[in-house]
Each structure stands twice: as C-alpha cells, then as structure tokens.
Specification:
The complex is a heterodimer of chains A (307) and B (268).
Chain A lengths: L1 H7 L9 H28 L5 E3 L2 E4 L10 H7 L13 H36 L1 H14 L4 H12 L3 E2 L2 E2 L2 H25 L4 H9 L4 H39 L5 H10 L9 H24 L11
Helix pairs in contact in A: 1-7, 4-5, 4-7, 4-9, 4-11, 5-7, 6-7, 6-9, 7-9, 9-10, 9-11, 10-11
Chain B lengths: L4 E12 L2 E13 L4 E5 L6 H8 L7 E6 L2 E2 H6 L3 E4 L11 H11 L4 H14 L15 H12 L6 E5 L7 H18 L2 E6 L2 H7 L2 E6 L4 E7 L16 H15 L14
Parallel strand pairs in B: 3-8, 3-9, 6-7, 7-8
Antiparallel strand pairs in B: 1-2, 1-4, 4-5, 9-10
Helix pairs in contact in B: 3-4, 3-5, 7-8
Chain lengths: 307, 268
C-alpha cells in the first residue's frame, strides 16, 4: 500500500534545473555501478558454498552456476540464443519479446486509466458511491494475481461475438489493467476532491453545474495527483503483463522467456538474467513515457503562489 | 430602479456540534444602486456571513434577502453580482486573461466577444501587459486586481467583497483602495465591502455599517460625509474630516459600554 501512501501526499512543485537533473542521472548510474561492484565483491570474498545456519542458507552460493559474473550476464546478451544454426542473437530475442509485452501492457494501461478515471468520477459525483466502491477497489488488489489469471483466460476463451474472437493476449491485457486501474482510481479521486472551497464557491456563484465544474476546475486540479498515479499504473501494467504471461502461458512475451530461460539456468546461468534485464528496461520505458506525458500538461502543475 | 440589496429581519443560526450558534439576529440593511457600503465589526460579528447571505452562499434561517428586486438565489443564478474574497482565488493553471475569461466562457459567450471584454477589463484594472502571465508570477496586489477584473466580467451592478485587501501590505492596500473607488465609479456598481480596518471602511464608503457580536447584529450605521466616493483621492487620508469620521466609526464600534477597541478591528 506504500503506492497509495505516496499518492495521498500533496503534490509538491519541483523546480529541478538542468544541473540538478544531470546530478540525479549521475547518482542513478552510480547506484547501478555500486550494486554491480557489491555483487562482484561478494562473489570474490564470500564462501563458495554460501553460509548455512542450521539448515537455512542465509548467504547464497558464489559459484558461477548460482551467481554468474556481471560481465558474463552482459556478454551473454551478444551471443546467439541457442547453438542451433541461424539462431537470433539473444538481445534481439529479448527486444522482440519485450516489444510484445510492452504493447499488451500499453493496452492494459489505457483500459486501466479509463476505468480508474471513470470510477473516480462516479465516486466524486455521488458520495454514496464512494462509500460503496472504495473498499471494493482496495480489496480488489488483495486478490492473488496467480489465482486470478487462469480464470480470466478461461472466461475469455468462451467469448465469441460475431467475427470477434477473444485472443489470449487480451486476457493478459485485462490482468494488466486490473493492476493499473487501482492507483489511477485512488489518485484521480484524491485529485478531483482537491480544489479549495474558495474555488468551488466561485464556480457556484457562476451557477456552474457538475460537468462544467469538472472540466474547468476539478479535472485540471487533479493533474498533479494524476501524473504520479499514471506512472504507477504504467509500472503496474508491466508487472501485471509479465506475471499474467507466466500464469496464462502466453507465448512470445518477456514473462514466458523469464520462465523458459530459468529452466535452462543449470546449463547456461547467464542467459536467465537477460529477460530480467529486459523486464527492468520495460518498466523504465513505460514509466518514462508517462513522464513525457507530464511535459504536455506542465501548466496544470502550477500552484497559486503566495499572495 | 429597485434597491441593490434589501435585507429584512434576517436571522442566521448555524448548527454546530456544540449546539446552535446565532451568527446574525434581526438584521435589516438597504443598499442603494451605486452605493458603497462597508460592513465592519470584531471577529464573530457575522459580517462575512451577512455578505455570504447576499451572495446566496448561505441561506437565512429567518427573514428575506432581495437583490435587485429578486431573491438572492435568483440573483446568483442570473449572476447579478460579482464576488471577490480575501484570497484572490485564481486558477493557477490559467493565465491572467483566461482567469478573467472564465465566467464569460461558462456563460457561453462567443470567443471574439470574450477576448474583447477581457481586454477592456485588463485595461480597467491596469494590468496592461500581464495578460499572458500566470498567477504565480504576480504579486499579491496584482492577483487581487485580476480577481476584481474577474468579478466585474459580466458587468454586474453589485460587487461583494470579503476583505479583499486583507492580505496585502499597507502601501499596496492604500493604492488598491483608490483603484477600487475609481473602478466602482467607472462601472457605477454598488459595493458591499467587508473589512476589519476602520480607515479602510471610512475611506471607501458612503455608509459604514458597524456590527457587534454575540449575537451578530447591526449596532449602528454611520454615514460618511466626505463627498462622493468617486471624487476621493489619497489626500483625503490626511484631512481633518477623515479623522472625524474615523472617530465616529470607532465610537460606534465601542458602543459606549466598552472602553477599549474590540478584538479583531484594526485602528490603523
């Protein structure tokens, strides 16, 4: 629920200059390097069989099988997927799979955003709807996805309307949207309820009804709350898509590759890391795209300033 | 021509957790067209509540409020008044022009007409080149000018103002007072002005309505014999007649029984 906690905090206006942004990027890079160095140091200094207390292994083995070198993981990306003749280079295989997953996650994100904002509008309009819906919205996120995914797939496979036939990827998109709608619903509701009394009364003196008040006051005021919610939704959609690919057994996506290559780890330990890198890159691309969206609406992130 | 505001026998009782609070009791008030009336009194005397009743932001528990011969509710629906609060209350994502245009857009005015009216209003409040600025790029005084321009957008014949200069520094405040008198004279609008400040009330008003708390009621109405409000200028602030009027309002506020100034009223 820490996601919701960040959402509920009032948005602050950031005045990051070019220099501050470069510095942030530098720290980010430094963090990755520090992680790589720490991993290699442990692999170098740690006991070969890890550390056992009783029967519990509290530190992992440092063998090449359990913990390949960072450079082996990266190097593996530039070798062919298999030894078969004409096999693709591994990074390309990952990019193609990630592309498919990104597309499905994007569909899930759009559906999730539409549903989330729709729910927020309904909850803002009728206070009764808020009391009735909000607990269920929170509860919906406690349903384990692994249990839920095969159900969606089996329901979907029964849908056939005229020429339209339910595809397996649609089940994955639905599950991605199931994770994506939550932060949007909570964040949008918070944002729609954000306007001050003075602004609400002003619109009241203009005899503005619900919808004009929504368009001219509540929706613009919700933007600073919506942007972080949309970013969380993007990350959630990617996680949802990857997990749903695994549990519905959809072929061709990054989730499938994670499982498939993990199964080959005893013979090719570095290969298992490639789809993991791919999934991380996916999440970054998804969240970054939403950040670009934020640039389009930057005027809505202004505050009133001190009088 | 009917009176701008007629308040008759108005009571306002708020239901709070700790019981009923009588905010206003047996209040009568008339405001003539084009007249400038200030409401002054200590905190809790109900002056803001009275203004909010005229604006139909609250409804009276008893009595009637009429604005230009119709009910306060109908007057709000017809947008017969413009309103300004202590905070400018501008929408931060809209430019100065777009903020002033908001009430016009909401009433469905054509785009070209809106632009023309906004230009007039920007000139009226002296904001010249600032139309494209955003509120966070303006000083408090300039934000308040935008709020006044917005209140005047639909050419109302009544302006309701709840301590609009309360958050400004003294210099800006005096300047804005003179500007407000000029604007009120140019538009011919009646003004109901809520304030804490005796000199502000005296300088601006044709009549000062002095209120007292617990329960909120009108203690005295003091006419200002200082000439027409449109002709007043800053030199009035140093005139003997100005100080006489300040004394008259202060004595009305003390109401004979209190030796010291009531809390919440500024004497500066």
């Amino acid at each position: 629920m820490s996601d919701a906690a960040t959402l509920l905090a009032p948005p602050r206006r950031r005045r990051a200059g070019q220099g501050a942004r470069l510095k942030a990027a530098g720290y980010g890079l430094l963090g990755i390097i520090a992680l790589a160095v720490a991993s290699e140091l442990y692999k170098w200094l740690g006991p070969a069989d890890g550390l056992l207390i009783g029967d519990v292994r509290v530190l992992p083995r440092t063998s090449d099988l359990a913990m390949p070198h960072i450079w082996d993981m990266v190097g593996r990306l530039f070798e062919p997927v298999t030894r078969a003749e004409g096999a693709r280079v591994l990074w390309l295989e990952i990019v193609i799979a990630a592309g498919l997953t990104l597309g499905i996650a994007a569909v899930g994100w759009v559906v999730g955003v539409v549903v989330g904002i729709g729910l927020a509008l309904i909850m803002q309009r009728w206070i009764l709807a808020e009391s009735a819906l909000l607990p269920w919205i929170v509860l919906s996120q406690t349903v384990p996805l692994i249990a839920f995914a095969p159900l969606v797939k089996s329901w979907g496979s029964r849908i056939e309307i005229g020429a339209f036939e339910w595809q397996d990827w649609m089940s994955v998109a639905v599950i991605a949207s199931y994770l994506a709608f939550f932060p949007v619903a909570v964040g949008a509701l918070k944002g729609l309820q954000a306007p001050d009394r003075i602004h609400r009364e002003l619109l009241h003196t203009y005899s503005a009804r619900w919808w004009p008040t929504m368009v001219h006051l509540r929706l613009p005021a919700a933007v600073p709350f919506l942007l972080p919610a949309l970013r969380l939704a993007a990350a959630n959609a990617v996680v949802g898509a990857v997990v749903a690919e695994v549990s519905t057994g959809l072929q061709g996506g990054i989730g499938r590759l994670v499982i498939q290559y993990a199964g080959q780890a005893s013979g090719d330990p570095a290969k298992a890391w490639a789809p993991i890198f791919g999934a991380i890159a996916l999440g970054l691309i998804a969240a970054g795209s939403v950040a670009l969206l934020g640039l389009l609406v930057k005027d809505y992130r202004r505050t009133e300033g001190e009088a | 021509m009917s009176a701008a505001v007629v308040v008759r026998g108005v009571d306002k009782i708020f239901d709070t957790k700790s019981g009923h609070v009588t905010a206003l009791s047996a209040v009568d008030l008339d405001v003539a067209p084009g007249e400038f009336v200030s409401l002054i009194g200590p905190s809790g005397c109900g002056k803001s509540t009275l203004m909010r009743l005229i604006a139909d932001l609250e409804t009276p528990t008893a009595g009637t409020v009429e604005v230009f011969g119709t009910s306060a509710h109908q007057a709000r629906v017809d947008q017969r008044y413009g309103i300004a609060f202590q905070q400018a209350g501008l929408l931060p994502w809209r430019t100065v022009s777009a903020n002033i245009a908001l009430p016009l857009e909401l009433s469905g005015m054509a785009r070209a007409e809106v632009r023309q009216r906004v230009d007039e209003l920007i000139a009226l409040v002296g904001l010249g080149d600032f139309g494209d600025r955003f509120p966070d790029q303006l000083s408090g005084g300039m934000q308040q000018r935008v709020a006044i321009a917005r209140a005047l957008a639909k050419k109302p014949q009544l302006l309701l103002m709840d301590e609009p200069f309360g958050a400004l520094d003294e210099m800006t405040r005096e300047y804005m007072q003179t500007e407000l008198l000029r604007i009120a004279a140019e538009t011919g609008a009646a003004v109901v002005f809520v304030t804490h400040s005796i000199p502000e009330a005296v300088y601006l008003s044709d009549r000062v309505v002095v209120m007292s708390p617990r329960p909120g009621r009108i203690a005295e109405v003091v006419p200002m014999s200082l000439g027409s409000t449109g002709s007043r200028a800053d030199d009035l602030r140093e005139d003997a007649s100005f100080f006489e009027m300040i004394t008259a309002v202060r004595e009305a506020l003390h109401g004979g029984t209190h030796a010291t100034a009531p809390r919440g009223v500024e004497n500066r």
